[in-house]
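Quick one, tokens below:
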């Protein structure tokens, strides 16, 4: 008898999760309303941006890259490399660092205001 209950609860959890996944993809604007709107990408998001050169002529360069992942999700990666300013030779490449794209509009509800009574 208790296994039937476990199967019912497990089936309900799977059905609820499936409903949320399908609803986020089908209903226009539902994802933005519930999770917030992602911040706009910078205009130079796929270009190498150079920093200041140090005394030995080494320049650190950084760029933001978007990668298409599973189920159509996009992940963002920061790539960083060190380049020689005179010869344009790449001296070192740091490991990629995966970042989350921050949201700017999380749509949190305002706290309820209770009216104050003026009766004393």
């Amino acid at each position: 008898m208790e296994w039937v209950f476990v199967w019912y609860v497990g089936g309900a959890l799977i059905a609820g999760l499936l409903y949320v996944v399908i609803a986020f993809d089908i209903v226009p604007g539902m994802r933005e309303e519930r999770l917030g709107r992602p911040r706009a990408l910078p205009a130079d998001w796929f270009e190498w941006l150079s920093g200041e050169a140090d005394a030995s002529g080494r320049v650190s360069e950084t760029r933001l890259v978007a990668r298409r992942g599973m189920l159509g999700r996009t992940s963002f990666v920061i790539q960083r490399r060190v380049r020689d300013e005179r010869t344009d030779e790449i001296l070192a490449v740091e490991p990629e660092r995966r970042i989350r794209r921050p949201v700017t509009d999380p749509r949190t509800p305002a706290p309820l205001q209770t009216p104050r009574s003026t009766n004393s």
